[in-house]
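User: I'll paste a sequence; please echo it back and then give the predicted structure.

Assistant: Echoing your sequence first, then the prediction.
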Amino acid sequence: MEGVMRMRDIIAHHYFDIDAVIVFDVMKNNLPAIKMTIDKMLFDI
């Protein structure tokens, strides 16, 4: 989860330094795992 928070910080506060290719790659490769984690958290509520 620390990586997600770091990515959010970079996107929100350091947007001039963002490489769109890297952001796209991170989202493409990590979004399914993040979604599974969120779905599990919502199910457990």
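Residues 20-44 form the longest helix (25 residues). The chain is about 80% helix and 0% strand.
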